[in-house]
Amino acid sequence: MAALESLRKGVLGFGPLGINGDEEEAEDSPTVLLSVLAQHGQMGLCFYDTKDSSLHYMIDTADNYELQLLARVIQEVSPHVIITSAKQERCMTSFLQQLGSNPDYKPEVVTYPYVDFGLEVSKQRLLSAHLPFVPASISERDKMSYLSSCISFDSPLMLRAVGALLKCLDRRRVGVELEDSSVGVPILQFHSYTLKGVVCIDRDTYSVLQIFKSELHPSVYKLHSGEKEGLSLYGILNRCRCKFGSKLLRQWFLRPTLDLAVLHRRQEVIRFFTSPRNSDALSNLQSSLRNISNIPTLLRRMSLSHTKVTDWQSLYKTAYNAVCIRDTVRHLPQSIHLFRDISEGLSDDLDHIASLISRVVDFETSLAENRFTIKPNVDPAIDEKKRRMMGLSDFLTNVARRELEHLDPRIPSCCVIYIPLIGFLLSVPRMPSMVEKEDFELEELDFMFLSEDRLHYRSQRTKELDNLLGDLHCDIRDMETAVMTQLQNIILERSASLYKVLDLTAELDCLMAMSSASQEYGYTSPKLVSHRKITVTQGRHPLLELCSPVFVANSFQSSESQGRVKIITGPNSSGKSIYLKQVGLIVFMALIGSDVPAKEAEIGLVDGIFTRMQSRESVSVGLSTFMIDLNQMAQALNSTTGNSLVLIDEFGKGTNTVDGLSLLAASISHWLRKPPMDVPHVLLATNFHSLLQLGLLPSSGLLSLLTLETAVDGEELVFLYQLKEGICQSSYAANIATLAGLPTSLVQRGVEVSELYRTGRLIKRIDKASSDEQANRCRSVVKMFLSLDLEDKDLDLQHFMKDELLPSAGELPNRS
Ligand SMILES: Nc1ncnc2c1ncn2[C@@H]1O[C@H](COP(=O)(O)OP(=O)(O)OP(=O)(O)O)[C@@H](O)[C@H]1O
């Protein structure tokens, strides 16, 4: 043990091992339990994730009466269990009721008595929680101050929520259901969770912009292995080499940020790796990243003493490669924040862990015997026992030879074997005369069992051997297990260094993934500014440009001087929706720190992206399509600030034309009448050309009108997809209908009726013979009406209708 002790202290050199054990991931479906307490406009919450046994806490934050912040957390985390106090404010009651009415998401709601949310009770629970990362040397008295460095003690509501969460974990024995009752639910780390500075984007926007393809809730905490991402922004940018890199990238996607410092930190790394000069560093780092394993899973197994041989291999590879990454990064410019953090943050603990594992664990034998085996020179006592064990075989041959001399002369040979837990036995071949059990009895020997045609006996001599050497094997195992436990403890005490590896390498992985996507697709680094302006020069749709052989780039400018409300008209299929989505995606990409598909871009950070685009299917929500449209529009009207981006496509189509048009006009007017500072960036596509033709909007310097160019080549309509200023004069519906394959006669009749309607002329039915006579009769009726003098006191309307008008009208033609 002395050698192990010396390893504890010293840092020894090490090199790569020729090991190839694949990491085996624990893929039980993870559970997230969230505990929340809301009081007097403040909210404190925390949640436990079984996937990595981590406790995430959010410092007490103000929330509104609708608990929007809580809704946002639930949207992101998707807890399976929500724990709250039985004594709660009305806002929480109605929040939970509302949650219950969502058919897509049904968490289990658990209420505990208010006392379980007591501050002192919670602190006590925290102190007695199973926290393997707390060094054993820390006394009970100092534990509280140690813990206050891991979790904020300034947030009473959150701390009280932690108390209830720990009670629930304990009661349900989450993740340790099958363990002995003495094994507590491990908490391997505390994580601060924040939504500060997060750009507001709802689920519909994520789906309509195709940021995530999966129809499931895009939650980080629900991403199971095997789930495939279709064509989506996440899909094309996610070139991460490790799982936790992908997971972090997903988190970035779910939390686009307004924090310029965070975005600049990401941009500087991407800029470094997109330079062709640095491609070697990129590929070196990526190959090391591949060997970083899922640290939380490994540490979790360690905390439960379930460490497998392959876990030791993975941990060694992880520590070794983390050191390689750090050493490579130390040669890169330290002016880049992430590089400096890696150089300084990946501590010597990693060298220590790697060298310790490589000095202690005998991987070859461990793999062969499928149990933890240690190398020589770690513990002299074990070495001594192993030596005796090795010498045993020669020694046993001698013993067997001597035993044979005393045996029945008919027995040709014998050997002495050792079976762990049973001990030493004399093994002789079964002879043909030995048929019945009685035949097995031999003089001075105790028959034990028959196996594979060999008979096993205990003799006086083997009993002596048992006393002398019998526990050797078990002793070695026990001693090696003790070394393993000690090694585990050393590593668990250094788990903070390993989590740091996880955080920093995940960030590096994401940024390298985004850099290679940027390089491959020809993106540019956007200039991020804090003022209210968006300028995109020759922007492209990041997904469509990959599927379409030719993509026409279009620019976008939105500012006080260039207009903040843009209305785009254009025939169907002219590219309006794509343009809207393209702007949304470019802004979104800038807000996660990524490069963007454009020649140049200057993006003023927006606090939210609101969309009203195609409706999600309404069956599951129980709302009509039009109602969903209205809900989305209401969100955009009520929640936007002068710093939001609003994308509206075809609003008002779900009801009759006049009502839809008026609602649309009223909504745009609402924004245009606001003070310029409060007008969001609005990009609106519509087929209601009368919105502009009838002059339904107030005149405003903030309004600009755009259209997408088309050309008519003979009968054929050609889409040019080029954006220009102006209004679309025709919907070209007939041309598009012909393109879509509608019968020509039908299209012609449509054109005819549309023309008559537009010019206010009579539309004649084609299914009934109409005659000039009928038309004349109509005309005479109108004439008679017009000749009426309504001011005439003697006018007898009854007589006029009955005797003059109706006989002359005959049968009136119907309008078709
Ligand atoms: N800039 C572009 N470059 C190349 N192709 C484009 C471009 N924009 C759109 N397209 C093509 O045109 C198709 C139709 O585009 P989009 O759906 O945006 O039309 P739309 O005007 O919104 O139609 P609707 O009014 O019927 O919704 C796209 O699927 C795409 O194939």
TrEMBL record:
Report the residue ranges that make up the DNA mismatch repair proteins mutS family domain in this protein.
Answer: 644-660
| Keywords attached to this entry | ATP-binding, DNA damage, DNA repair, DNA-binding, Meiosis, Nucleotide-binding
Leader peptide range in chain numbering: none
Q: Which GO terms describe its cellular component?
A: nucleus
Q: Which GO terms describe its biological process?
A: chiasma assembly; mismatch repair
Q: Per UniProt, what is one GO molecular function of this protein?
A: mismatched DNA binding
* Family the entry assigns: Belongs to the DNA mismatch repair MutS family.
Role played: Involved in DNA mismatch repair and meiotic recombination processes. Facilitates crossovers between homologs during meiosis.
Q: What protein name does the entry list?
A: MutS protein homolog 5
The organism is Perca flavescens
